[in-house]
Design goal:
Layout lengths: L1 H25 L11 H8 L2 H9 L1 H4 L9 H11 L36 E7 L3 E10 L4 E6 L11 E5 L4 E8 L2 E8 L1 E6 L2 E6 L7 E7 L2 H5 L11 H8 L9 H11 L3 H22 L2 H25 L4
Antiparallel strand pairs: 1-2, 1-9, 2-3, 3-4, 4-5, 5-6, 7-8, 8-9
Helix pairs in contact: 1-10, 3-5, 9-10
């Protein structure tokens, strides 16, 4: 009897070990495995590997160039994809609203300030590309962009800009290495849900524009921003027959999008909260045979779903 009772527990332990290992190896979260931090991601974009793609694929990236993929260009793209931090060019969008913004009466999407929450890549004059996390505070209706990577003027962890329905302010520092915050007025221009601009008006001169793209692999590679270190990479990959992402995982990505960003996500979260109590009650009520047949597999499935949800939310 002792051995028979121990078997469900052994199966449960095996489930947990497998789940932990698979989550870490797949890179689904930052809690397990060798995840790349924002500074590591930025280092990849500033690396010689990225520069070599821009150099080897110039004819594909430049407008009017010969659209012929050379062996050197294709090798550079493949080497770029094999970099450890390449999958982490897509950052977790745990703060992004589950659903699209409401529609105007004319049928156009209303891009509210709250809908801009999430992680973004931005081009800054002093340091080039940076990673920003935008958080929305519902009580004050303020969206704050905090630098996940920083420069000598505004370090990582400090607010870079704040936006509300009635105001827009960008912080700057007067001297390198010494944080002397000065808030300047700005304007927000939302191109679409994945692209926005913060415009700093200058008296008697051209306005300074900070361009941002949502921190998503495809959006970054296809970003039509000349100052982006990955400018033109998506076009080069298409000409060279190199898939930016593994097409076999597109169905999984679609399922995860439904899992994390749909009306059913609220119900899923509630089920994940209540299910442990139901499983505990079932464990006490059912016999040993029934426990082995349905309770252990159910618990394993629950652990997988919980692993996916918590890692997406940045917990663990």
């Amino acid at each position: 009897m002792t051995r028979r009772r121990a078997r469900p527990r052994l199966l449960l332990v095996c489930w947990c070990v497998c789940i932990r290992s698979s989550c870490g190896q797949a890179g689904w979260g930052t809690g397990w495995g060798d995840a790349c931090l924002p500074t590591d991601v930025r280092s990849l974009l500033r690396s010689e590997t990225t520069s070599s793609v821009s150099s080897a694929c110039q004819n594909l990236i430049k407008k009017g160039g010969a659209k012929v993929c050379s062996a050197e260009c294709r090798d550079a793209l493949v080497h770029f994809q094999k970099e450890t931090c390449y999958p982490y060019l897509s950052q977790p969008q745990r703060l992004q609203p589950r659903l699209e913004s409401p529609l105007h009466p004319q049928g156009k999407t209303a891009h509210t300030v709250a809908a801009l929450a999430g992680r973004w890549y931005g081009i800054y004059p002093a340091s080039g590309i940076e990673l920003i996390e935008a958080t929305f505070e519902s009580s004050s209706t303020v969206l704050t962009g905090t630098k996940l990577t920083g420069n000598d003027f505004v370090r990582a962890g400090r607010a870079s800009w704040t936006i509300s329905p009635t105001s827009c302010k960008v912080v700057s520092s007067l001297w390198s290495g010494v944080f002397t915050p000065r808030w300047d007025g700005c304007k927000l221009r939302v191109v679409d849900r994945d692209h926005m601009q913060i415009i700093l008006p200058h008296d008697g001169g051209d306005d300074e524009i900070l361009n941002f793209v949502r921190a998503n692999l495809i959006e970054l590679l296809a970003w039509n921003e000349p100052l982006s270190p990955a400018h033109g990479f998506f076009q080069a990959m298409l000409h060279c027959g190199v898939s930016p992402e593994d097409t076999s995982s597109s169905l999984i990505d679609d399922l995860l999008a439904v899992f994390h960003h749909s009306h059913g996500t609220v119900v899923i979260d509630q089920v994940l909260l209540v299910l442990p109590l139901l499983l505990l009650g079932g464990w006490q009520m059912q016999g040993e045979l029934m426990r082995t047949q349905w309770l252990v597999p159910t618990l394993g499935t629950y652990a997988v779903l919980l692993c996916l949800r918590l890692n997406y939310l940045g917990v663990g």
